[in-house]
Amino acid sequence: MPTDTPPLQPVFVLVRPQMGENIGAAARAMLNFGLARMRMVDPRDGWPNPRAVAMASGAAGRVLDHAGVFPTLPEAVADCAFVFATTARGRDLTKPVMTPERAMDHARALSAAGQRVAVLFGPERAGLENEDVARANAIISVPVNPAFPSLNLAQAVLLCAYEWGRQGAAAAPEVLALAGTDLASAVEVEKLGDHFEERLDAAGFFFPETKAEGMKLNLRNLWSRMPLTRADVQTLHGMLRQLLRRRDP
Predict the structure, then answer these.
(1) What is the pTM of this model?
(2) Band of the pLDDT at 2, cuts 50, 70, 90?
(3) Three-state secondary structure of the chain
(4) Higher-confidence residue: 175 or 157?
(5) Residues 28/157, Cβ–Cβ less than 8 Å
(6) 176 CB contacts (<8 Å, ≥6 apart)?
(7) Within 10 Å of residue 9's Cβ, how many Cβ atoms?
């Protein structure tokens, strides 16, 4: 039977994080895209960390309030059915390697089936160790500049959180901001085309006669191709009228 139950959120696991500021920034990045399940493995400066709280900036503090702290990675992912490891370095380990987009697509499918997913992020200085990656089912590798592949911890978290949020959002990939006006109707665009065609014809624009029909067709196509608003149509009518007034004696 269909259900509207949302998928389980993935757990973002910061493995041996070093700077409190980066932990706080990671919390902010998570909450930007609706994620709130953070776990930490052996944070260098202990926990809680006032610098992390300060950097989390307000609402994201609740991500830190509920963060789990574990002494080892196996304990942190013990309840997870599938584990991703984020790394930019080549490994001597045979594993599927996915982009963040593909990984979060797979994570959504697993989560929708009730399987808990974890994403591992390594310490700032050197990233995840081979022993960490060995415990993952797949690798997430961001297609960055190979001459400079290093990502800040919070940046890596943001990329994965963004892909998770984007794939579950109802937002269209592109919208037109109308700035207080409506799109012009087909009849309004048609009348604008009539106006221009009439005035251009009077000015002798459609020459030679053998090409006139094709020129008019191209002009009509130009208007229909534009996402014109009613304000745009009124402006174009006004421009044409003003040009004609200045030309007439």
Answers:
(1) 0.75
(2) very low
(3) CCCCCCCCCCEEEEECCCCHHHHHHHHHHHHHCCCCCEEEECCCCCCCCHHHHHHHCHHHHHHHHCCEEECCHHHHCCCCCEEEEECCCCCCCCCCEECHHHHHHHHHHHHHCCCCEEEEECCCCCCCCHHHHCCCCEEECCCCCCCCCCCCHHHHHHHHHHHHHHHHCCCCCCCCCCCCCCECCHHHHHHHHHHHHHHHHHCCCCCCHHHHHHHHHHHHHHHHHCCCEHHHHHHHHHHHHHHHHHHCC
(4) 157
(5) no
(6) 183, 227
(7) 16
The 10s digit of each residue's pLDDT in 141-160 is: 998 888 887 889 999 999 99
Amino acid at site 74: P
Per-residue pLDDT tens digits for 200-213 = 998 899 999 999 99
Cβ burial, residue 44 (10 Å; 0-12/13-18/19+)? middle
Please say whether the beta carbons of 181 and 229 come within 8 A.
yes
